[in-house]
Amino acid sequence: MLLRVWNLVLKEFIQFRRDWLMTTFILTLPVLQLVLLAQATGSRISNLRVAVLDLDHSSAGRHLVTMLDNRRELDVCYYPAALADIHRLLDQGEATLAVIIPSGFAADLADATRTPKVQLIADASNIVPASIALRAAREATRAFARETGFFGKKTVFPIELRTTVRFNPAFNHKFFTVPAQVGFIVYQVTLTLASIGLARERELGTLEQLMVMPLRRIELVIGKAVPALIIGALNFLLMMAVAIFGFGVPLRGSLSLLFGLTLLFIVVEIGYGIFISGIARTQQQAILFVFVLAMEDMAFSGYLVRVKNLPVALQTIAQIVPFHHYLTIIRGVMLKGAGLDALWSHTAAMLLMGLLVTTIAVRNLSRSLD
Amino acid sequence: MSIRRLLAITRKEFRHITRDVRTSFLVTIAPAFLLVTLSYIFAMDVDRVEIAVRDLDGTPLSRAFIASLTADGDMTVVIYVRQGEEVEPLLTRGIADLVLVIPHGFADAVLGGGPAEVHCIVDGADAIAASQTIGFLESRVDAFVAGLRYWRSGATGAILDISDRAWYNETFKSLVSMVPGMMAVLLCMPALALALALTREVETGSFENLIATPVRGTEYLLGKLLAYEASGMVSVIMTWLVATLWFRVPFRGSFPAFLLLAADYMVASMGFSLLVANFVRNQQTAMFLILMVFFVPSFFIAGLILPIADNPVARAVAYGLPTTHFITICRSVFLKGLGPVALWEPALILLGTGIASQVLSLVLFKKKLV
């Protein structure tokens, strides 16, 4: 049996060699993509453009503007003359935030009985930059209030928050996205390879030839799975090297644990791939199915949005998405140095889903092959 | 060039699409279907923060402080940490997002007017969520202090009144911002289907049959383009219906203008995938390429979630992607009610790149057919 499987694997690799363009893409594009995405999403969001309408023309107002500009998230670069200009700047997407300092601002500051006002207007058509800009502006304004409070008539702010940020003190967004991206690429590559493998043989008619060979179904499946496993693992190691040495993402836990769990994850995804192979009639269908599945999985995985923030029903669905568990694992091991004791439940869930899907897939496949 | 032959190809292509329920689902309804599920998941308001509290003070005031933090239900205390217990595992295992340590003498310091130093330890692995969490906490601390000041001296709460307004998305819902953007990303699926349809013909050998017919290269490509652009427009209408009827995203622009701009996007994205399909011989490679160079970058660097990065390479890639421009268009038409005149810049870029890439692939293609 081993020999037969081995021969099948050999055949797959001959095909990979023959289709060298595809093989080159599979090995290099993921790394390139990782580099590009890390560049794009890696750094902190900075220099969101701000328009300031200062109707007060006082030194206090100018001081506030300086404090806004000093925030690295914000870049005050427009000084419109009227409210209509603010409309235009936000409409065109030139500025993310507008700050209005009303006239009488400095006078209100000096008078203990009055409360000075500041108005912020954000272009909320894109919610993430809008909320970041709003938050930075609120913080700068609060800092301004505290500062003038110390100098002037107002009392000391009675509660001082001292914040310690664990695991990623510099708020480097890269540390969060790069491990997730590594996971996502491993996911994409293995799922694509595994799901197309059989659909392709079927579409080209070579499946018939494989059928008349003395191969058992399970051997056929294993023979198709092994190359995907090898390529997935290779991709993972390449990208880990880029993540650690190229981007300085810390690896605080054990690499061998992470590698072992990655292999498990790849096997589970191959199970999903074979399942798709069984349903799809053509490669086009297989590919578009992968596409739909990949989108859903990415959404439920916690890649962008924390699973905790999903509605309860969706949180339950997320529990059966292996990619969700894998992301928790890779982030846990790399950033938090978590060991198997903290991750066992995710490992068990992944294992369970893998067994379930692979069993269904292999059964389904034997039916559709006959 | 003969219109009759061109339309014959289009008819043949439509038959391919409609013949199989699975294919027709994937090229027409799938984007709308994905929009429904994905949008819920991209509603990324951090509105549930789980905190662990270590109250070393244990006075009525410190308890009132904790109660005021959690009063509106968005913050919940999941665990009270006893004296001497480790805090670290709470973050490693993801039990709490934030640990709050209230020091001895908190009440005395607060009532004495001097600052009481409250220590907060945040899980910074997810930088964006962490900064949102800190902002959350800060605003609640501010509210507590304001209440305290009012209670003690009757002074109106705030030192400074910051009012903020979110234009275009008044309720500041991420769904309203994400649905139009997400639409733009999902509408690159018809282009993926086109690339697959082109490579399939070569791979399964039916292309040889077509060479033997009097159909010319231009007619062949334009025929295919027409079929997939038409099915793409069906997707546009489906997703638009989902966005406006299901999600009730305000649509402030004009519908014919939106269709026109969407057709513009179809031209650009189809041109992109036509160009890719020209260089590859099989569907697997085509799919892999489109996924890696078109789809995934569309998600992460085209401004859907994070603003377009400052990094020059990432910026150049983002401007080269048709999705970047269509995300701007979708959001502007839906939320800002802008028309084609105000959006001339992205619209012209799409039209220009679309026509250029289509002409280029027509030129390249003719040579191969001979």
List unreliable stretches of 5+ residues of chain B: none
Quaternary organisation: heterodimer
Count of the separate structural domains of chain B: 2
Beta strand count of chain A:
5
Beta-strand content of chain B: 5-15%
Largest interface: A-B, 113 and 127 residues
Overall mean confidence score, pLDDT of chain A: 81
Q: What is the typical, i.e. mean, pLDDT of chain B?
A: 81
Helical content class of chain B: 55-70%
Q: What's the helix and strand layout?
A:
The complex is a heterodimer of chains A (370) and B (370).
Chain A: H1 2-18, H2 20-42, E1 48-54, H3 59-70, E2 74-78, H4 83-91, E3 97-101, H5 105-110, E4 117-123, H6 127-151, E5 159-166, H7 173-204, H8 206-212, H9 217-247, H10 255-279, H11 283-300, H12 312-319, H13 322-336, H14 340-369
Parallel strand pairs in A: 1-2, 1-3
Antiparallel strand pairs in A: 3-4
Helix pairs in contact in A: 1-9, 2-7, 2-9, 3-6, 7-9, 7-10, 7-11, 7-13, 9-10, 10-13, 10-14, 13-14
Chain B: H1 3-19, H2 21-41, E1 49-55, H3 60-69, E2 75-80, H4 88-92, E3 98-102, H5 106-112, E4 116-123, H6 127-153, E5 161-167, H7 174-186, H8 189-204, H9 206-212, H10 217-246, H11 255-279, H12 283-301, H13 312-320, H14 322-336, H15 344-369
Parallel strand pairs in B: 1-2, 1-3
Antiparallel strand pairs in B: 3-4
Helix pairs in contact in B: 1-2, 1-10, 2-7, 2-10, 7-14, 8-10, 8-11, 8-12, 10-11, 11-14, 11-15, 14-15
Structure description:
The complex is a heterodimer of chains A (370) and B (370). Chain A is α/β, with parallel strands linked by helices. Chain A contains 14 helices and 5 strands. Chain A is 70% helix and 9% strand. In chain A, helix 7 (173-204) runs antiparallel to helix 9 (217-247), helix 7 (173-204) runs antiparallel to helix 11 (283-300) and helix 9 (217-247) packs across helix 10. The longest helix of chain A is centred in the middle third of the chain and has 32 residues, at 173-204. Chain A starts with a helix and ends with a helix. Chain B has 370 residues and is α/β, with parallel strands linked by helices. Chain B folds into 2 domains: 3-43 and 173-369, no CATH class; 49-153, abc type-2 transporter like fold (3-Layer(aba) Sandwich), CATH 3.40.1710.10. In chain B, 67% of the residues lie in helices and 9% in strands. Chain B has helices at 3-19, 21-41, 60-69, 88-92, 106-112, 127-153, 174-186, 189-204, 206-212, 217-246, 255-279, 283-301, 312-320, 322-336, 344-369; strands at 49-55, 75-80, 98-102, 116-123, 161-167. A 4-stranded mixed sheet of chain B has the order 2-1-3-4. In chain B, helix 2 runs antiparallel to helix 7 (174-186), helix 8 packs antiparallel against helix 12 (283-301) and helix 14 (322-336) runs antiparallel to helix 15 (344-369). Chain B starts with a helix and ends with a helix. In chain B, 52% of the residues are buried. Strand 4 of chain A pairs parallel with strand 5 (161-167) of chain B.
